[in-house]
Structure to design on (620 residues):
């Protein structure tokens, strides 16, 4: 029986190439506002994809992803403000610290199942937040101004965001098109059955968790390079995870395209509602609730129901002629 | 040290009352109500508005709020959770997460982000005052009310026909339905009762601490702690969970200073979650 990932057909290559060309050339034809919007979309897409990789594929619903945003942001702040090193090193440090931290906390939180995992991740993030507030090394709860951000042009920031978005997307596509990704999807659909078929549950979940943490950390550094100010209550605030959940839920959990659509909607909605700051989160919350009630698989779920749209070809198709042959030989007997 | 232990235990009573609603809903409906803390703060705000705008009696305000919260619980369970519950516990949890965000921001819009406090007849008084220990009147009241209410809830669940139906619906959905119990209706009742009890917790919290629209999260984490230590779904477990959490916080505050009070709570929780992921007291369920 042949199981194969969807071929990268000409249509797929062309649509991806057009998207890449448009995004790379954006700063040269788009205005400042458009560039800024796309900077945000790309970064939010990255964190949405990472949350989705955990929740939609590995079955790990985390409410503690903000821990890695904060760690990433602080890595950048410490490198550029305290150690006066080139800020790009901050991204490296963000990835390293995030992976190490993820590795350490994976020991306790992976012993927790389902909802306990969710609570555990949240507690970890809250604990880190409280700890940073009373830690002199990171300037208590005052935090840092990230001054290097002010010398950065909008275009440079855009390309950093583009890089982060690209890393996130490429990582997810590579993971899901690989055999490992097939195991992940099997694990999501039926944990027990996939384990019997040889999927190593613990290892698979851990790899997903580490990849997701590393890239969330990098994205956190980029987000704080853009925001240019970090303090514990905001850096480790649950609002980050709220956005990730929103992006994944609206776009469609368990799809790669979902968080892309979700991030576009999220950023645009937030900009539109910018002048009504209190309303924006209220409306986003209501939209998310209604979306789960009406279309639990998100916008991608609606699109997929109409026609099997799959931009990155991560779905496997089975050659059904084999079954027909089997049935015929069985009938002949 | 003795003072820390006694204060910790008394705080534990209130913590248990905050946690008992979360525990009940998890035990019965099998849904983690992430909006639990926010719903409690909603009831606190209701009491505040009613007592300042409508009636001048805090107990009457509480009675009205209990009815309102029971209705809110009814609506939430009937139209939100029951709709998605067949898609799994995680979907329902995300719905409540969305609701939690909506509540926090709606409250901020209406009341602003500032601190509020509820009037209390026993504020500033002391239940016991001596050189050795002193117990504030508010803490004593919290503790007594919490114990009475939790025992009352346990009796409702244990002895009344409604309680028995609710427990039947949660322990074996299919068998309960075959016996003619509408399980989803039972969930609705359970949520309404829980929210009524949460309104009382809301009153005590509002009298003891200052509160603002975002405090819900803080109390949700306390509720999680209580429930995780005591075991999800166990009513009396919340009392023990509350006591352990309160003690851990007060002893840490006594030993390391108040700055570490919250952190100590989290760390105790994480350790307990790691060592006994299913809760300290809950029995292992085999499936």
């Amino acid at each position: 029986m042949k199981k194969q990932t969807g071929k990268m057909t000409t249509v797929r290559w062309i649509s991806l190439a057009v998207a890449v060309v448009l995004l790379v050339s954006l700063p040269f034809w788009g205005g400042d506002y458009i560039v800024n919007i796309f900077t945000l979309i790309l970064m939010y897409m990255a964190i949405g994809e990472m949350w989705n990789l955990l929740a939609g594929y590995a079955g790990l619903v985390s409410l503690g992803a903000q821990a890695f945003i904060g760690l990433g942001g602080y890595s950048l702040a410490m490198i550029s403000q305290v150690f006066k090193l080139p800020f790009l090193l901050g991204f490296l440090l963000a990835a390293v610290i995030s992976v190490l931290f993820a590795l350490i906390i994976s020991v306790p939180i992976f012993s927790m199942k389902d909802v306990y995992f969710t609570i555990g991740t949240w507690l970890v993030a809250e604990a880190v937040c409280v700890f940073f507030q009373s830690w002199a090394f990171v300037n208590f709860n005052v935090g840092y101004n990230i001054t290097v951000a002010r010398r950065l042009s909008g275009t440079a920031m855009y390309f950093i965001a583009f890089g982060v978005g690209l890393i996130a997307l490429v990582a997810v596509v590579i993971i899901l098109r690989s055999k490992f990704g097939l195991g992940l999807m099997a694990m999501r659909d039926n944990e027990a059955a996939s384990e019997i078929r040889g999927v190593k549950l613990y290892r698979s979940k851990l790899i997903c968790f580490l990849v997701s943490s590393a890239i969330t950390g990098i994205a956190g550094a980029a987000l704080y390079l853009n925001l240019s100010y970090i303090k514990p209550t905001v850096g480790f605030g649950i609002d980050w995870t709220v956005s990730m959940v929103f992006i994944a839920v609206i776009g469609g959990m368990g799809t790669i395209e979902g968080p892309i659509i979700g991030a576009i909607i999220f950023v645009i909605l937030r900009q539109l509602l910018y002048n009504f700051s209190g309303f924006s989160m209220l409306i986003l919350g209501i939209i998310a609730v209604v979306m789960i009630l009406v279309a639990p698989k998100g916008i991608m779920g609606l699109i997929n129901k109409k026609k099997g749209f799959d931009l990155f070809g991560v779905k496997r198709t089975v050659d059904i002629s084999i079954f027909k042959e089997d049935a015929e030989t069985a009938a002949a007997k | 040290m003795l003072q820390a232990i006694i204060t910790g235990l008394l705080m534990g009573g209130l913590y248990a009352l905050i946690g008992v609603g979360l525990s009940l809903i998890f035990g019965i409906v099998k849904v983690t109500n992430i909006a639990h803390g926010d719903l409690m703060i909603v009831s606190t705000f209701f009491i505040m508005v009613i007592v300042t705008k409508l009636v001048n009696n805090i107990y009457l305000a509480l009675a009205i709020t209990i009815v309102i919260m029971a209705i809110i619980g009814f609506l939430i369970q009937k139209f939100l959770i029951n709709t998605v519950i067949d898609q799994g516990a995680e979907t329902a949890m995300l719905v409540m997460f969305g609701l939690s965000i909506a509540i926090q921001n709606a409250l901020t819009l209406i009341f602003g982000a500032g601190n509020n406090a509820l009037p209390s007849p026993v504020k500033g008084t002391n239940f016991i005052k001596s050189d050795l220990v002193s117990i504030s009147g508010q803490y004593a009241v919290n503790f007594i009310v919490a114990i009475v209410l939790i025992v009352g809830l346990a009796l409702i669940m244990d002895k009344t026909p409604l309680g028995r139906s609710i427990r039947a619906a949660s322990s074996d959905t299919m068998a309960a339905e075959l016996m003619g119990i509408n399980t989803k209706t039972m969930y609705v009742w359970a949520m309404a009762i829980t929210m009524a009890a949460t309104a009382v917790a809301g009153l005590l919290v509002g009298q003891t601490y200052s509160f603002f629209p975002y405090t819900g999260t803080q109390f949700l984490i306390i509720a999680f702690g209580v429930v995780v230590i005591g075991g999800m779904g166990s009513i009396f477990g919340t009392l023990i969970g509350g006591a352990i959490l309160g003690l851990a916080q007060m002893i840490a505050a006594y030993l390391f200073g108040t700055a570490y009070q919250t952190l100590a709570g989290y760390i105790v929780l994480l350790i307990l979650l790691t060592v006994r992921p299913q809760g300290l007291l809950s029995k292992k369920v085999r499936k």
Summary: The mean pLDDT of chain B is 86.
